[in-house]
C-alpha cells in the first residue's frame, strides 16, 4: 500500500499534505454513506502524459452530487484544473485520480443537509496496465443490481458500492475474478464496477442505462470507437443466457479498461481467447490512450509532469 501515497491532496481548493487529509469519525459520510466519487486515469504517451476524458468525469461527479442534493461549489473547469494541479504538484504519471465529495462533520442524523460538503482529489501512481491476454473468469452474481427507484444507478456514489462489494466478495470467495449482476427483472446489468459488452454474430451489444448500469465513460468511448470501426452497436435488454452462447464478451471501466471475459460460470466464452471485435476495440483504445494513434476525439488533457517508470499493477 505504500505505493499509493503522494505528497499532496487537493482539499476544497487547496493542496494539503497527504497525512493531513483526515476526517472526524462522526462525519456524516461514515455513518450514512453520503459520498460521490470518480476514478480517472492519467496515461503516459511518448511525449508526455494526459488525463483520459477529464471533463466528462468531472461533469459526472457534479451530476452524481446533484442527484443527492449536494451542490458542489466548483465548476467542471475548476475541478479539471484542480486535477491537473494535484498531478503536477505530486509529479506522478501515469497515475490514478480519485476525486471524492461527501457530507462531512456536522450534525449526526440521517438528514445530510446539516453537514458540510467536502471535496478532495487524490492521485497515486498507477502504471500502464500491461494487458494480459488470458481474460477474466467471471460468474453471474446471486446479488441483483440496484432496483430502479431504490438507489440511483446513474450516481457514482459510495453507498452503491455496498452492493458492488457483495457482488465482488461473493465472486472472489467462489474463485472468480468478478461477478455480473442481473437487474431487478433478471436481465444483464453490469459488473461490480464495470460495464458489460457482448458480441454475437458480428454485432456489439451492451446493456442500456435503464438496466441499472452506470453511464460509464469507458463504455461511451468504446461505443464511439466501435461505430467508427463500422461495428453495429445495439443497446437493449440482454438475457443472462446470451453470456453462455455469445462469441465474445468484455468489461469496460476506468480500472478494467477493456478486459475480455474468458468464461462465465465456467462456460467458455467463444473459445476463451480474445475475439476479433474485442481485440480491435481493445487495440484502438490502448493506441489512443498510449499516444500511439492521434487523439482524434481530444480525450486527453495534457499534464506537465516527468513520466516515471511504469508501475506494475
Ligand atoms: C465507475 C463504474 C463503472 C465504469 O465507469 P467508467 O466511467 O468507465 O470508469 C461501471 N460500473 C459502475 C457501477 C461503476 O461505479
TrEMBL record:
Look up the EC number in the record and give it.
Answer: 2.6.1.42
Keywords, A to Z, come to: Amino-acid biosynthesis, Aminotransferase, Branched-chain amino acid biosynthesis, Pyridoxal phosphate, Transferase
Instruction: Determine the domain of life of the protein's source.
Output: Bacteria
Q: Please indicate if the UniProt record lists Transport as a keyword.
A: no
Entry cofactors: pyridoxal 5'-phosphate
Alphabetical list of CDD domains matching this protein: BCAT_beta_family
The record's function comment reads: Acts on leucine, isoleucine and valine.
- Report the sequence similarity comment from the record: Belongs to the class-IV pyridoxal-phosphate-dependent aminotransferase family.
Q: Know the name of this protein?
A: Branched-chain-amino-acid aminotransferase
Amino acid at each position: 500500500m505504500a505505493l499509493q501515497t503522494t505528497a499532496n491532496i487537493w482539499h476544497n481548493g487547496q493542496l494539503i499534505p497527504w497525512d493531513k487529509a483526515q476526517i472526524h469519525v462522526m462525519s456524516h459520510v461514515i455513518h450514512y454513506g453520503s459520498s460521490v466519487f470518480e476514478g480517472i486515469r492519467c496515461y503516459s504517451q511518448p511525449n508526455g502524459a494526459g488525463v483520459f476524458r477529464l471533463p466528462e468525469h468531472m461533469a459526472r461527479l457534479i451530476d452524481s452530487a446533484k442527484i443527492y442534493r449536494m451542490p458542489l461549489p466548483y465548476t467542471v473547469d475548476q475541478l479539471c484544473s484542480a486535477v491537473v494541479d494535484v498531478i503536477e504538484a505530486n509529479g506522478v504519471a501515469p497515475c490514478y485520480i480519485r476525486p471524492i465529495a461527501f457530507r462531512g462533520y456536522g450534525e449526526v442524523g440521517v438528514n445530510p443537509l446539516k453537514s458540510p460538503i467536502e471535496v478532495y482529489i487524490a492521485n497515486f501512481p498507477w502504471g500502464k496496465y500491461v494487458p494480459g491476454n488470458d481474460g477474466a473468469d467471471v460468474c453471474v452474481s446471486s446479488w441483483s443490481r440496484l432496483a430502479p427507484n431504490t438507489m440511483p444507478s446513474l450516481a457514482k456514489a459510495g453507498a452503491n458500492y455496498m452492493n458492488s462489494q457483495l457482488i465482488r466478495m461473493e465472486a472472489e470467495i467462489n474463485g472468480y475474478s468478478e461477478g455480473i449482476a442481473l437487474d431487478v427483472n433478471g436481465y444483464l446489468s453490469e459488473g461490480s464496477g464495470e460495464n458489460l459488452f457482448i458480441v454475437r454474430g458480428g454485432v456489439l451489444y451492451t446493456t442500456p442505462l435503464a438496466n441499472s448500469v452506470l453511464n460509464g465513460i469507458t463504455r461511451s468511448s468504446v461505443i464511439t470507437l466501435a461505430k467508427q470501426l463500422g461495428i453495429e452497436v445495439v443497446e437493449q435488454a440482454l438475457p443472462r443466457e446470451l453470456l453462455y452462447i455469445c462469441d465474445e464478451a468484455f468489461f469496460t471501466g476506468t480500472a478494467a479498461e477493456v478486459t475480455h471475459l474468458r468464461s462465465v460460470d465456467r462456460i467458455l466464452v467463444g473459445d476463451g481467447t480474445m475475439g476479433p471485435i474485442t481485440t480491435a476495440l481493445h487495440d484502438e483504445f490502448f493506441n489512443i490512450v498510449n499516444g500511439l494513434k492521434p487523439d482524434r476525439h481530444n480525450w486527453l488533457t495534457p499534464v506537465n509532469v516527468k513520466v516515471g517508470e511504469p508501475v506494475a499493477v
